[in-house]
Design brief:
The chain is α/β, with parallel strands linked by helices and 537 residues long. Helices cover 43% and strands 18% of the residues. The protein is built from 18 helices and 16 strands. It has an eight-stranded parallel barrel with strand order 1-2-3-4-5-6-7-8, surrounded by seven helices. The radius of gyration is 34 Å and the shape is elongated.
Length: 537
């Protein structure tokens, strides 16, 4: 291991990553990301800004350089500069920087049509910028903008530029696939040409992802002799983005004999912070950092993992500060549920496990999102539900809540197969619902228990689509509780109430049966017709 060649990682999330459409980091956010990149992740270098962009950019760079100077990291903080002696160099010096990444033209196409200069003129301007930077104590690395097109279409010019920079002894020459147009085969061919001819020069490769080839191109660059790789956290960057740090680090470790200094187990934490600050949501299926990439959905996979980790690969989630999960849904089956129960320290009898499995399958068929955190609520709901004899059902309901109008409820209740319908208004939807139920029960000469407490909870970290558990405490001779589970808080309360209605029927064993009372009152209702607005089914 000690003889492994190291690949240097320069992360440009704060410069090139900020060119993502709609992304602009605040100076304080830039500082927090810089700290995490250098201290937590331990990347070798970071590129934090472009010179002369704005006062806000100056403020952000100053915050980072002041912190980096105190920590001894200043040589690891880089700023993009331009061939505009002395403007960029003076800006970087004023910002407290010590390293400039000088942007030059790596193709004749850019040189002729953008700068309208000859190679000799451009080389002289570069030479002047490098010497001026050194006179100010600034270390210089050099970008060859549009290098990939230069190698394709004007190789002689591009190789002459590299030769001139090698003679100038710049610290690094950086080769960007600016438009993300190279294939892995071309990357390998061009970089082998350059590294074999200029063996004493440090070369970086900067990949873009327009063809979704950035990580493949990085791998080829490493095999072809490159010394450094540029990345961004979560693959941020212009158009389709840059080579994502998280994937690059994984492939270096798993597919090469090289190493990097990056601490893998810190990657996910940094990724989530950058997601928050950038406002750019990480796709659920994004390798390494996506929400779903360490989640097994199919029950057969969980079963194989239970037996001999048959569906594991080298991308173990623990490497990146994550954990493997087993999805709960219509394809999960008992094996997935068992894995989740093990994580929660819960053990169920086979009969109860089958009931819980069936309930999760039903929820999956309805496209409900079920998480591990929901599982205890689902278990509690299923076990309570199956222990209660179901004679009373809420057949249908209509709840309304409008600004300026009192909430109202229309309810149809089935009692031993007979239907009763009532409506009411109240201080809230549930209050209106309960008043409608009370009307029905009053007509049946039945009492309802007193509502003692009403508690709503969601799983820790639950989102807006999480299941809501409503627990209602009732008093009717004794205290008892019922639970309802649903993504909608009010519906969860209705389910808890339905359980209550069936429980009090079971509690009435020593009194005249509710069924007999219901039929007796049904005869009265038939005599009264629609007078009491109760309908016999």
């Amino acid at each position: 291991m000690g003889n492994q060649r190291k690949i240097e990682i320069m992360d440009t999330t704060l410069r090139d990553g900020e060119q993502t459409s709609g992304v602009s980091f605040l100076p304080s956010e830039k500082l927090q990301i810089a700290k995490l990149l250098l201290e937590e992740l331990n990347v070798d270098r970071i590129e934090v800004a472009s010179a002369k962009v704005s006062d806000g950019e100056m403020e952000g760079v100053k915050k980072i350089t002041q912190w980096a100077k105190d920590k001894g990291f200043l040589d690891r903080v880089e700023v993009l500069g331009f061939v505009d002696t002395p403007a960029s160099v003076d800006w970087i010096v004023a910002a407290g920087g010590r390293v400039m990444n000088l942007l030059t033209k790596g193709s004749m196409n850019h040189l002729v049509h953008q700068l309208r200069k000859t190679p000799e003129q451009h080389f002289e301007d570069i030479h002047r910028s490098v010497l001026y930077a050194r006179s100010k104590g600034i270390t210089v690395n050099v970008y060859l903008e549009d290098w990939s097109n230069g190698m394709r279409n004007s190789m002689e010019y591009t190789m002459d530029l590299i030769g001139m920079l090698a003679k100038l002894n710049v610290r690094r020459v950086m080769l960007p696939d600016t438009l993300g147009l190279l294939s892995p085969k071309e990357v390998s061919h061009f970089i082998k040409l350059i590294t074999s001819e200029f063996q004493d020069t440090h070369f970086d490769f900067h990949a873009h992802n327009d063809y979704d080839l950035s990580v493949s191109n990085v791998l080829e660059a490493i095999f072809s002799g490159i010394s450094g790789i540029h990345t961004t956290v979560n693959g941020l960057g212009e158009r389709a983005g840059n080579a994502p740090l998280e994937s690059v680090i994984a492939v270096i470790k798993d597919f090469t004999d090289f190493k990097s200094n990056v601490r893998e187990h810190k990657i996910f934490r940094v990724s989530k912070l950058v997601e928050q600050f950038s406002g750019q949501h990480i796709p659920a299926n994004k390798p390494v950092v996506g929400e779903n990439v360490f989640t097994q959905t199919a029950g057969i996979h969980a079963d194989g993992d239970n037996k001999k980790n048959l569906y594991f690969n080298d991308l173990m989630p623990e490497r990146f500060g994550r954990q493997r999960k087993y999805a709960l849904g219509k394809t999960s089956g008992k094996a997935n549920i068992l894995k989740n129960l093990q994580e929660l320290g819960i053990s169920l009898e086979q009969e109860d496990l089958a009931k819980v499995t069936q309930r999760i399958i039903e929820l999956g068929d309805k496209k409900e999102r079920v998480t591990t955190e929901d599982l205890p609520y689902i278990i509690s709901d299923v076990l309570q539900h199956t222990s209660i004899t179901q004679h009373i059902h809420i057949a249908s309901y209509n709840l309304s809540h409008s600004k300026g109008l009192r909430p109202s409820a229309q309810v149809k209740l089935q009692v031993y197969g007979e239907s009763y319908e009532e409506s009411a208004s109240g201080d809230g939807q549930f209050d209106a619902f309960m008043k409608a139920i009370k009307k029905i029960y009053k007509s049946l000469n039945k009492e309802l228990p007193k509502l003692v407490n009403y508690q709503v909870s969601i799983p820790p970290g639950g989102k807006t689509d999480a299941f809501v558990e409503t627990i209602i405490t009732w008093e009717m001779g004794r205290i008892f509780k019922t639970k309802g589970l649903d993504p909608d808080q009010t519906v969860a309360a209705l389910k808890a109430t339905e359980k209550m209605l069936n429980i009090i029927e079971q509690l009435a064993d020593s009194k005249p049966s509710f069924k007999a009372t219901a039929h007796k009152n049904l005869e009265k209702i038939s005599d009264y017709g629609n007078e009491n607005r109760i309908t016999a089914g």
